[in-house]
Design brief:
Elements: H1 9-18, H2 24-31, H3 35-45, H4 51-68, H5 89-92, E1 111-115, E2 121-128, E3 131-134, H6 135-143, E4 151-155, E5 168-172, H7 173-179, H8 187-216
Antiparallel strand pairs: 1-2, 2-3, 4-5
Length: 217
């Protein structure tokens, strides 16, 4: 969808459906619009985030804040250290040499559990030093095939800890958004709705093309 194009009725309907309960960036990806364009259109239509979404975001931000906040009365580990910025001879003796890695550094193939942007625990795998990937995406690309742009990986049994290849399915962002909607669509229902949206978009595009031909003719 090109920047500056008029919003279709279907896009506005999708915006009303998705915007209140989903991250704006996700909505922008599904609609093929910029983050700013989605915010401006939602504001113009009077569409706001739901109370449930705002509460989830508040809990997420509080959780992140608590995890990085220093405890009351915290004393820095180097409060009584002599020297500045580790330049004192006594501190330089114990400094890591260039290229040194701590003994507990994880190796390639190591798997850990981290929370994604929604606060959902996900398995991640170390691909190489400084490079980590979601195990679900890693396994899908390794055992099944490449993940097309605009697609995500879902778990057939709903368990994000089960990253076995047979439990992974690759779907479009729009289909994923329908599955995550408040209506609780099944995969089959969501596929039908996605097909309907694609057909409507195709018809709208053909109608616009015919209109241009008539004008040029």
């Amino acid at each position: 969808m090109g920047k500056g194009l008029e919003w279709t009725e279907q896009e506005i309907e999708d915006l009303r459906e998705m915007y209140p309960d989903h991250d704006t960036e996700d909505v922008a990806i599904v609609l093929g619009r910029t983050h700013r364009a989605v915010i401006l259109k939602a504001s113009a239509l009077g569409i706001k985030k739901s109370a449930e979404f705002m509460m989830r975001e508040k809990r997420r931000l509080v959780k992140v804040s608590k995890s990085t906040r220093l405890a009351k009365g915290h004393v820095p580990w180097n409060a009584a250290t002599v020297g500045v910025c580790g330049q004192h001879p006594n501190t330089r003796k114990t400094q890591f040499k260039k290229g040194h890695l701590p003994k507990n550094t994880l190796q390639d193939g190591a798997i850990t559990i981290r929370e994604d942007g929604r606060g959902v625990p996900q398995k991640t795998i170390r691909v190489r030093l400084g490079k980590w990937a979601y195990l679900s995406r890693y396994n899908y690309e390794r055992f099944i095939g490449p993940i097309p742009k605009g697609h995500v990986i879902r778990f057939r049994d709903g368990d994000p800890m089960n990253c076995e290849p047979e439990n992974l399915v690759c779907i479009s962002n729009k289909l994923n958004m329908l599955l995550n909607s408040k209506h609780g669509y099944t995969l089959e229902q969501a596929k039908v709705l996605e097909a309907c949206v694609l057909i409507k978009d195709f018809i709208n595009d053909k109608h616009c093309d015919n209109g241009k031909e008539n004008i040029n003719g």
